[in-house]
Amino acid sequence: MDRSEYQIEDDNLKLKVIFLPFLSISHIIPIVDMARIFAMHDVDVTIITTTSNAALFQSSISRGQNIRTHVMKFPAEQVGLPVGVETFSADTPPDMSPKIYAGLEILRPEIENLFKELQADCIVSDMFHPWTVDTAEKLGIPRIIFYAASVLSRCAVHSLEQHEVHTKVECDSEKFTLVGLPHELEMTRLQLPDWMRKPNMYAMLMKVVNDSARKSFGAVFNSFHELEGDYEEHYKRVCGTKCWSLGPVSMWVNHDDLDKVERGHHVKTQGEEEGWLEWLNKKKEGSVLYVSFGSLNRFPSDQLVEIAHALESSGYDFIWVVRKNNDEGENSFMEEFEERVKGSKKGYLIWGWAPQLLILENRAIGGMVSHCGWNTVVESMNVGLPMVTWPLFAEHFFNEKLVVDVLKIGVPVGTKEWRNWNEFGSEVVTREEIEKAIGVVMDGGEEGEGMRQRAKALSNAAKKAIKLGGSSHNNMMELIRELKELKLRRKPQ
Ligand code: UDP
């Protein structure tokens, strides 16, 4: 991509923007992509993070872009964490989560000092650093909130807070319709995050986050107009602040294979991906199902068994990204299963972490089973895949509504209950339910074909959105123009 294509008229007005990611993989990945988009537009970019988190993206930003990373030492000893455990991921033991938050709190004065020293024109802050809005105000610069979530999910939360329709139903499984949204979306109380059902510490944090959003200059989303246009307008109107969709961010900046493989992951050995690639390259176009549940999830053994049986009896070829629990019975079941599907060449298991962007763009992939993590939903738009939706935690159930009811490119597996990311919950989806949903998505019949066509149309729209004149490209130019205007007003030349 020719950098000059992105250069904004006035070189004397170079913007300086600081990005402050949260310490979890799925928040770091898109905000770093976004920082790279700003850098492409000739913005002077600094990302502030801790040592281990910087290692997750350092090589991708070192290739070809002028972005600085300011690395801070995480106070592991002070909070009683082993060195290097400072990222929320599927490997974070539940008792360590509060310690990561405590470490972040210790780092706050250092970050505030950095904001002052760096003399930036704007702070783009992850939603989970709500205090940055006050710091930005003291410095007289705009703060933009980054949500690693869909616009629809923010509108849904706002609707529930305003109208409290979920408190008016008789029981947790009774359906209600979200009030005032552009589409008629039905949910149950069981599908809402626990903090919305019963106030807890997280509810207090979310209140502070929401207050900080209202005081911000605006919000940036990894989305695009053709995907969530109705909700962008709704957000602006109801939440009362500006918002800019700048996605799909992954497609905008990750062009070569190394970018795609290293995104959010330390590559340990060269050629780590070759096995799956060789396997996939032998498969027919659109014939393989990709099954993955993001960076945070771990399933209990009985759920893994159900998934394994469903995949095998569905008859479709599959790649399954799976995490072990080190439970003895499960280990032997999974080992036998892996041996069997390897032998029949029907399935390929990737343990732990997969180069998702690379896999998804392989022509053999025809559909996916997804937990509806927002990054994954948007990444599936890059390539136009229909999906089996299997929401688990965070805002996944809202995202499922977008995929299934609004965009009509997904089939629900039928999960009924929200659970915490680091708990198993009590719900086990049966092999029959899983197999049935897979059948619809992978089948060549009318329903599957319709979803595939709509997904392809969205993929085409996504590609246009980030090109010159496209919706996200225009949003980016408009945001930079507004930030430059603010800078000019602050420092008359
Ligand atoms: N991801 C990946 N390989 C994996 C698991 C996840 O590359 O094995 C990436 C995926 O492409 C996405 C992010 O990690 O960008 C996961 O974010 P998402 O919002 O989908 O889910 P979460 O991790 O928050 O549950």
Automatic annotation (TrEMBL):
Keywords: Glycosyltransferase, Transferase. Its EC number is 2.4.1.-. GO terms for molecular function: UDP-glucosyltransferase activity. InterPro entries: UDP_glucos_trans, UDP_glycos_trans_CS. It holds the Pfam family UDPGT. CDD domains: GT1_Gtf-like. Gene3D superfamilies: Glycogen Phosphorylase B. Belongs to the UDP-glycosyltransferase family. This is Glycosyltransferase. It comes from Glycine max. The gene is SG-4.
